[in-house]
Amino acid sequence: SVMENLRKLNEDTVNEEQLGTALVAELDVAAKLVEESAARIAALLQDARERMTGTELAVHEAILDSCTNLMDFIKQLIITSNKLQKEIVESGRGAGSAEDFYCRNSRFRWTDGLLSASKAVGLRAQTLTDLADLCVKGQGNFDELIVASREITASTAQLMAASRVKATRGENLTKLEVLSKQVNKAAGQVVGASQSGKTSTEKSSTENVDFSKLSYTQAKRVEMDTQVKILDLEYQLERERAKIREIRKSAYNEANAANPVATQINAAPQKAQENNLRELASVLNSAPSPPSLIDLDLSSPKPVAAPRKSLI
Q: Which of 2, 71, 76, 182 has the most C-beta neighbours closer than 10 Å?
């Protein structure tokens, strides 16, 4: 089940003697989680076609179709990565066992990188599915889908990088590189569909104001208010980016046991990721709408005063 697979992905404690078994299990669980996510998305698409019409249906069809395509490529990427790992072990273990091979390489953090990348792919695929579910129900946010898609791109890139560290050029590595590009392209399509959906369902804020009817004073007031909002949003965005940098730095810090942020991430990676997505989306949505014509006194537009001539 989905919850059982999530529970397995959230289990962070692995003995060195079990690294090989754990890695194979993580890849298998991630593949199953992606497969279950794809099934959920198909059900969401069917539900949308039964309940929606017109622009609303077109928007959600485009998003869910692109999510289905993305899940398919992610699943293929995980399967190919699993095959490549078995190939690496067979060529590098010598007379030892697969467990011996992974234990020898764990000191270089290669195995740790594979384990964390495998977990990230499965968890982020699940997060994207949850957000798509909320969007179809009218409770979600297009910006959250955009962020989740980019997070998937990052996690699959991590899996790709970790998988190729000890790989030699061959069929599986070549296929993995091709699939990585296809995942990036598919994630871009989810982003594009989400951005298009946002544009289609939300009126442009500038359409609410006829700037040609504003007096010089009114126009300058609107311009100043807008500049203040831009500065405020830029400040909030920089704060969120700084938070992300600290989270990533803490997650890879060897002394992260004493770091409360890293401890929280390791204890509940899915919850930390979901909170991160919500905070990023809240920044994108925190911009107030520019003042509408109702808020402005347009009963008697004032003429623009001519500039004074210089006496020099």
A: 71
